[in-house]
Request: fold
Amino acid sequence: MDLMGMMGKLKATQQKIEETKKRLDTVLIDEQSADGQLKVTLTANSKVKSVEIADSLLEDKDQLEDYLIVVMNKALEKATKVNQTELDAVTKVDMPMIPGMEDMFK
Reply:
């Protein structure tokens, strides 16, 4: 592949990555505590969309903080996995292999 062809392919891949990132803003990740008292919704780009807290949790600040940490971390982990999987799929399929740089995209 010639240099101009590779540059065109890189530009097309970059555009697909940007389109994928925009689409991931619409992919929602829901997570909740085991007892359902706290629920959060994030986008696959890790933007918080909503938090629902049961009234009973409002009476215990420490418990609420613990719930928020656990549930938010689970939701962020899921969002990160979805995001990475989607972006990896775009780059692996569309990224041109430049001699000597193959290991960067594994």
Q: What stands out?
A: The chain is about 55% helix and 15% strand. The beta strands are 28-32, 38-43, 48-53. The longest helix spans residues 61-94. Helices lie at 3-24, 61-94.
